[in-house]
Amino acid sequence: MLRPKKKKEKREKLSKDSIQRAKKLFSYLKPYRGLFTIGWVFLVLSSSIGLLFPILMGQLLGTGSEQPSSMQGALNLMNVDNVTTYAIALFIMFATQSFFSFFRIVIFTNVTENTLRDIRKDAFQQLIYMPMDFFNKNKVGELTSRLSADIEKLQETMRTTIAEFFRQLVLIIGSVAFLVYISPKLALIMLATVPVMAIVAVFFGRFIKKLSKRAQDEAAASNGIIEEALMGISNVKSFTNELFMIGKYVKTVDTIKSLNVKSGLWRGIFVSFLIFCMSGAIVVVVWQGLLMTQGPNPELSRGDFFTCMLLTIMMGMSFGSIPDMYASIQKAIGATENLMNIIDSKNEKALLTGTLKPEITGAVCFEKVSFNYPQRQDVSVLKALDFNVTKNQTIALVGSSGAGKSTIASLLLNYYPVTQGSIQFDGVSISDIETEHLRSHMAIVPQEVILFGGSIQDNISFGNIEATAEQIIEAAKQANAWEFISKFPEGLGTEVGDRGIQLSGGQKQRIAIARAILKDPKILILDEATSALDSESEQLVQEALNKLMEGRTSFVIAHRLSTIRKADNIFVIDEGMIKETGKHDDLIASNGIYANLVELQGVNALN
């Protein structure tokens, strides 16, 4: 899961820490603060002008009454009280409000999209530079789902919700002020319900946010299940576990449904409560207002009565919309907190502080290197490894699964810091070398090649994005890949499909080799690059690998021992230690672990 259960519960509350993290959003708004300020000016103007509607409409409806209107005297609108004047004033008000609203929406959208673009860029950049341990703890499907969902919540909130929330507050405060001016008695009747509803709104808002946050977490988990199932669809089908995956997914979506239904139930109770209270308040105000217009000396004119009624209705509508908008803002604060947690996390640039850029020739030294994975501190994967590799040597790493072979490759690439000891390249400690500089001199051809969506040319040029078409073709030829590439109608422009699904395993391996050739590394890592191939594909790939290994230091993690007979040195890894070392023939003669592995695989030692 993306987070442990206990942490989820802590994060559901709108704490001071979450608000502090949400405040960091303002750092992204800072470059656009001038435009944002103008947007707020238009928002204030459009909201304030909106208050004129119930006043003008009330006076329009009350025109002709004998009792003078207090608002007529206060507004002194051209000293006239005829129907035409108020109608024209209303049209002018609508036109002005429309003008301000248009620019407010355009400006807020512009600022929002620019801000979210910057957040997207920083969040993705941060994820790209996260250490490998981060991806061991977090599912990629949940990360991508959370990132897109949180950005979507921010987008809606920044575009409209904040502006609407502020506009409703202006309408509520303005309505109260005018009600107090026109009739303190009616104002007090309305205000008697406000504190109760405000307290209830806060309580329900927090409770509903908690349910929504849990549903959001479950939605992210369900997306992770979808991604896992589709990425491993061949395994799902081969093991006939379709029903198992469906059950796993259905269980999650049932939880989402239950949480959202529960949230909807409480929202319904809350909204119904508000509707009842506000409707009741409006009825009471209208009832009392009508009584105040009766008698020989009425307390209210007909125009003031209609104004009060419209102000009350407008204030009631504003109050009714406040809780949902408040809940949306709470969700946006939670989304901002999630994004800022990613953006503020320490990535490789912060954790790997080496600055040296020495010449990398391929000489590697492991000095008493021990290693434990951060998630399994009690399990020693490597134990005091000691070995030296000179440049252009081919080193084979053999041993049973879990012996530590792939871990050595990960440490060479500086995916993890060593627990004890040191790794040196040409006499310089790996911790002192700039990571990007080190990795630029290394290439890896993994057992399971993952190609990126796009063309064959895009995937080969990933080894050197500045390579020319001629260099890409030459790399493809050296990798024994040009023969099948040239047979495709689109040639290098052939789309490989999602993760390279339209190509065979051997074809994908040769594209990965071409990519490594194009990079021209000093150090090459082959992680069981031929173990999953048929005999014909293995031969073609092995020929390409032999060409690739020429003139560079190569670490070959081997499953098929027939591929490493010519290695300069073979390290037999067992339980995190080098138990045997030597050439193929010498290790066969020693009749130890390696000889036993060779015998088990039926490899002819004389060939």
Molecular structure report:
- It is built from 24 helices and 10 strands.
- It is α/β, with parallel strands linked by helices and 607 residues long.
- It has 2 domains: 5-348, ABC transporter type 1, transmembrane domain (ABC transporter transmembrane region fold); 352-441 and 565-607, P-loop containing nucleotide triphosphate hydrolases (Rossmann fold), CATH 3.40.50.300.
- A 6-stranded mixed sheet has the order 6-7-8-3-9-10, sandwiched between helices.
- Mean pLDDT is 80; it is low at 1-13 and 75-81.
Question: Which tags fit this structure?
Answer:
single chain; 607 residues; alpha/beta; ABC transporter transmembrane region fold; Rossmann fold; 2 domains; 6-stranded mixed β-sheet; 4-stranded antiparallel β-sheet; 9% strand; elongated; disordered N terminus
> Strand count, sense and closure of the main sheet?
6 strands, mixed
Question: Into which percent range does the helicity of residues fall?
Answer: 55-70%
Mean pLDDT: 80
Structural class designation: alpha/beta
CATH class of the largest domain: Mainly Alpha
Residue windows where pLDDT falls under 50 for at least 5 positions: 1-13, 75-81
Number of domains: 2
Content of β-strand: 5-15%
| Overall CATH architecture of the largest domain | Up-down Bundle
Distance between the termini: 50 Å
Please work out how many helical segments DSSP would assign: 24
Q: Count the strands? A: 10
Shape: elongated
CATH topology of the largest domain: ABC transporter transmembrane region fold
Q: Rg from C-alpha positions?
A: 35 Å
- For CATH, the homologous superfamily of the largest domain is named as ABC transporter type 1, transmembrane domain
Strand order of the largest sheet: 6-7-8-3-9-10
